[in-house]
């Protein structure tokens, strides 16, 4: 296995666009997995109980946002949904890159 040279046409898609490199995909996949793991941990019963008992009742939170616990819980849920939406978009983007790269590689193998 070797690194592709700058002018190497061996890693181009049939349409002429350069395929996404494996290194970038690996970092993006690792980042997405870390985000999903963090989201999963933050939604555990222990973390939600800690959020309700400590974070939502902090003096700074009450002073800056609200004392209404149900509003603050809805706000935390909306933030979790936004994080899940961003992670889903990243997974879809990875799926698209994987699909493009897979068919690019299978096209080159079948053409040989």
From TrEMBL:
GO BP annotation list: positive regulation of growth
Any Pfam family: DUF3475
Superkingdom field: Eukaryota
Residue ranges constituting the DUF3475 domain according to the UniProt record: 24-79
PANTHER family noted in UniProt: BNAC09G50660D PROTEIN (PTHR31371), OS05G0457600 PROTEIN (PTHR31371:SF13)
Protein name: DUF3475 domain-containing protein
Organism field: Oryza brachyantha
Lineage of origin: Eukaryota, Viridiplantae, Streptophyta, Embryophyta, Tracheophyta
């Amino acid at each position: 296995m070797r690194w592709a040279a700058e002018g190497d046409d061996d890693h181009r898609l049939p349409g002429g666009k350069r395929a996404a490199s494996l290194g970038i995909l690996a970092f993006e996949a690792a980042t997405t997995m870390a985000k999903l793991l963090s989201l999963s941990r933050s939604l555990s019963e222990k973390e939600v109980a800690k959020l309700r008992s400590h974070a939502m009742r902090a003096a700074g939170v009450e002073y800056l946002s609200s004392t209404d616990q149900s509003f603050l819980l809805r706000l935390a849920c909306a933030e979790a949904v936004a994080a899940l939406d961003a992670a889903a978009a990243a997974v879809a983007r990875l799926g698209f890159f994987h699909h493009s790269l897979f068919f690019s590689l299978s096209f080159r193998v079948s053409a040989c």
